[in-house]
């Protein structure tokens, strides 16, 4: 871990014994609320993915919209929202996935990827078990996109999400990681 990454980690608020789950909640509102924290997180991802032929950025509802939206502007790419069930107005594809507690569903517009396909960077604030990111990647693929890479502000490596993404051929990059969860 270099000094820059240590500074960013210190901007993430840890909430121990988060209600109902008992997890340490890694709160990015403090990171994104800091001008340097947000800009340097976005810059780190933009630098990492430069030269990989990304056509579009897809962000996951809700915290992935903050990072993905900022990154799309920084990279001058369009933004595709992957939303929780029932929010998108036009025809959708839907995937169900498991969380640490319970299940949820995400959707993408069927026409989110232009005809002929596109290389899409998947973005979210955090990867834990990987259930959300894998469901989102499937949606992009069903809409005709290719997903070579996914990028996160935070990885919780003990929960194995990045390994699961690698298992379906998606490289992941995280600006910082936290042991424990
Ligand atoms: O890797 P996983 O185990 O799937 O967990 C990661 C997901 O959990 C959080 O979202 P959450 O479902 O809490 O929704 P929110 O962004 O609306 O708060 C986080 O923003 C990721 O999307
Ligand atoms: N530990 C955690 N902190 C914040 N968001 C999460 N989403 C899944 N696990 C999380």
Automatic annotation (TrEMBL):
<feature type="domain" description="Phosphoribosyltransferase">
    <location>
        <begin position="47"/>
        <end position="146"/>
    </location>
</feature>
<dbReference type="GO" id="GO:0006168">
    <property type="term" value="P:adenine salvage"/>
</dbReference>
<comment type="similarity">
    <text>Belongs to the purine/pyrimidine phosphoribosyltransferase family.</text>
</comment>
<keyword id="KW-0808">Transferase</keyword>
<keyword id="KW-0660">Purine salvage</keyword>
<dbReference type="InterPro" id="IPR029057">
    <property type="entry name" value="PRTase-like"/>
</dbReference>
<dbReference type="GO" id="GO:0006166">
    <property type="term" value="P:purine ribonucleoside salvage"/>
</dbReference>
<dbReference type="InterPro" id="IPR000836">
    <property type="entry name" value="PRTase_dom"/>
</dbReference>
<dbReference type="InterPro" id="IPR050120">
    <property type="entry name" value="Adenine_PRTase"/>
</dbReference>
<dbReference type="Pfam" id="PF00156">
    <property type="entry name" value="Pribosyltran"/>
</dbReference>
<dbReference type="GO" id="GO:0044209">
    <property type="term" value="P:AMP salvage"/>
</dbReference>
<keyword id="KW-0328">Glycosyltransferase</keyword>
<comment type="subunit">
    <text>Homodimer.</text>
</comment>
<protein>
    <recommendedName>
        <fullName>Adenine phosphoribosyltransferase</fullName>
        <ecNumber>2.4.2.7</ecNumber>
    </recommendedName>
</protein>
<comment type="function">
    <text>Catalyzes a salvage reaction resulting in the formation of AMP, that is energically less costly than de novo synthesis.</text>
</comment>
<dbReference type="InterPro" id="IPR005764">
    <property type="entry name" value="Ade_phspho_trans"/>
</dbReference>
<dbReference type="GO" id="GO:0003999">
    <property type="term" value="F:adenine phosphoribosyltransferase activity"/>
</dbReference>
<keyword id="KW-0963">Cytoplasm</keyword>
<comment type="pathway">
    <text>Purine metabolism; AMP biosynthesis via salvage pathway; AMP from adenine: step 1/1.</text>
</comment>
<dbReference type="GO" id="GO:0005737">
    <property type="term" value="C:cytoplasm"/>
</dbReference>
């Amino acid at each position: 871990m270099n000094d820059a990454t240590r500074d960013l980690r210190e901007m993430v608020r840890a909430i121990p014994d988060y209600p109902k789950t008992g997890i340490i909640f890694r709160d990015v509102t403090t990171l994104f609320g800091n001008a340097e924290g947000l800009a340097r997180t976005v810059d780190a991802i933009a630098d990492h993915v430069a030269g990989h032929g990304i056509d579009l950025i897809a962000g996951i509802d809700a915290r992935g919209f903050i990072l993905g939206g900022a990154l799309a502007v920084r990279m001058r790419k369009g933004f595709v929202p992957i939303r929780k069930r029932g929010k998108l107005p036009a025809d959708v594809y839907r995937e169900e996935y498991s969380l640490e507690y319970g299940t949820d569903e995400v959707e993408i517009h069927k026409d989110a990827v232009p005809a002929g396909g596109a290389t899409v960077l998947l973005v979210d604030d955090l990867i834990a078990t990987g259930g959300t990111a894998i469901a989102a990647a499937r949606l992009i693929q069903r809409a005709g996109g290719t997903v070579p890479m996914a990028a996160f502000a935070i990885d919780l490596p003990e929960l194995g999400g990045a390994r699961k993404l690698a298992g379906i051929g998606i490289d992941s990059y995280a600006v910082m990681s936290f042991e424990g969860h």
